[in-house]
Amino acid sequence: MLNYSYGARLRSSGEIETNVVLLSNLFDGLEPGQDRVIGPAPAPGKSIQIGGYQLIAIADQYGVEWDDQSSTATLKLVRAGHVLDRDYFIDLVKKNIALKDGQNSFSVDVASFKPIVVDKKDQDPVTLSEINWDKKTGKFSATAYLSHPSGDKMIDSFILRGTIRLKQPVTVYNSSYPAGYIIQSGDMHIEPNYSGKIPLSSQVLPNPDNIVGMSLSHAVAGGDPVLVTDLRRVTLIHQGDPVLITYSTPGLRLTATGRALEDGGSGQFVHALNLGSKMIVQGKVMASGEIRVDASSTAVPASSKEVRGLRLPTTMMNNGDR
């Protein structure tokens, strides 16, 4: 014989935190010891709607009599859940890569991802295995397994794909510049932890010291890495051009007239013939028609044996003419 509890009330709504529905999820004010499992709970994040006639049947079956019993009553029960979004899986991949490869300075992006919902109390809802990372392309794949399978094969295990990029110091543009623009020293800076996409070749990143004075072969955007393919050398001095040869030390500046023995762009080192001394010097192209020599530069006679190995035009070395 059932002992009916009096004064029980139908809840206005209910949240389920386990994988089963309890009688107390439906009714408040049950007698001590009366609570029990009455069925399976929906999947995390899902809900069920219970109508009045079903509620009356459940109350009769388990000896519950609530004060406002009605066939028009309804109750919605929601299974508490936690959404595993893109950021969750990015962090999960980072932890696994750090443990597997000992890498700590990298960024992760997950592609073609659909968020899933797991039990609210599940502290370690997903396990990653079979992690494959191609360090040349940056692409990775891994198999994700739910720690507590839901029975849905599409969710319980799936392939996770994306990219992993190591962070590295890279020279980037400070702003956007059009094709043909001449790069100045203030137009770029070194980003110490750049993690964007760059071509695979190790030869694509130019020496920052050699960029100033070069022109852009195409338009670039601020934040883009400076690549060899972006740049082209602007020829400021042509072979045979008259040049000003300068030498400077604190408190002293010497100049001489000369003739360029080879083409050169800004920052490049070229040979020139000093027309007064008939000596050949090597200097750095500073501007159109000007090269600068320093204390480390050694002048050699135009007629010396050392000059022959430089393969410079002998006609200009002999008389300084074209």
Written overview of the protein:
By secondary structure, this protein is mainly beta. It folds into 4 domains: 5-79; 84-166, no CATH class; 175-232, no CATH class; 235-319, SH3 type barrels (Roll), CATH 2.30.30.760. Helices cover 14% and strands 40% of the residues. The protein contains 6 helices and 26 strands. It has helices at residues 23-26, 52-62, 86-101, 153-156, 305-308, 314-319, and strands at 5-10, 14-16, 20-22, 27-28, 37-40, 47-50, 64-66, 75-79, 81-84, 106-111, 116-119, 126-133, 139-146, 157-166, 168-173, 188-194, 215-216, 231-232, 235-237, 242-249, 252-260, 264-265, 269-274, 279-287, 290-293, 300-301. A 5-stranded mixed β-barrel has the order 20-21-23-24-25. The chain has a 4-stranded antiparallel beta sheet with strand order 10-14-13-12. Strand 20 (242-249) and strand 21 (252-260) form a beta hairpin. The longest helix is centred in the N-terminal third of the chain and has 16 residues, at 86-101. The chain starts with a strand and ends with a helix. The mean pLDDT is 85.
Molecular shape = rod-shaped
The total count of strands amounts to 26
Q: Determine the CATH topology of the largest domain.
A: SH3 type barrels
The strand order across the widest sheet is 20-21-23-24-25
The percentage of residues in β strands lies in: 35-45%
Structural class: mainly beta
Give the fraction of residues assigned to helices: 10-25%
The largest β sheet comes out as:
5 strands, mixed, barrel
Named CATH architecture of the largest domain: Roll
Instruction: Give the radius of gyration.
Output: 38 Å
CATH class of the largest domain: Mainly Beta
Distance linking N and C termini: 122 Å
Uncertain stretches of 5 or more adjacent residues: none
**Domain module count:** 4
The DSSP helix count reads 6
Protein name: Flagellar basal body P-ring formation protein FlgA
GO biological process, one term: bacterial-type flagellum assembly
Organism: Aristophania vespae
Keywords: Cell projection, Cilium, Flagellum, Plasmid
